[in-house]
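User: Sequence for DnaJ heat shock protein family (Hsp40) member C8 below. Tokens please.
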Amino acid sequence: MAAAGGEPGEPSSQNVKQIEKRDSVLTSKQQIDRLLRPGSSYFNLNPFEVTYWITNVSFFYLSILVHPDKNQDDPDRAQKAFEVVDKSYKLLLEPEQKKRAVDVIQAGKEYVEHMVKQKKKQLKKDGKSQDVEEDDPEVFRQAVYKQTMKLFAELEIKRKEREAKDMHERKRAREEEIETAEKAKRDREWQKNFEESRDGRVDSWRTFQSKGKSKEKKSRSFLKPPKVKMEQRE
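Assistant: Structure tokens for DnaJ heat shock protein family (Hsp40) member C8:
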């Protein structure tokens, strides 16, 4: 997590040499274990931690070490490790994503520096020695590392929460859309059935009226009074 000579968050030239020296003895299995160790889902959120952001040659060397073709005895884990390396490297090639990672690391460093100052301030107030364990560069580096991992983890948790919320909102909007469409369909079907039944009712009424008139006409013909013959006078 040491600051780079040009940009915070990137390994310095001295750290690069240390990393290269350390990793020159790491085998494919050791690199895969490093990338898939317990808690790696959060450790690997820091792309600098995954790739060390050293040189393209070093990156390709790392990618070859964990490539499934080179680890045919454990292809599944090798594939996962390779994807982690590839994702982190591509992320660092994007200026905005790289800047975001650098900002997180810088925030972690500034937080630790602030806490160290607060410790020294309190010790001075208490009249004690202002020496703290973080004065040791390695202890300070570890403190920054832990704080940086915490920040990356918090950001990832927030991202997942936003993603879950957005998914819930999209699901609810979709359900409302489907409900609206189904209601509109039911309304159209009801209107169609109503109009069809109305036409049927009108036709039935007309038929009823027509039959009624016919019966009335026939009734009238049957109810005509008989003609009365005049009786002849005797």
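Helices lie at 13-23, 28-35, 40-43, 47-51, 56-65, 75-93, 95-125, 137-222.
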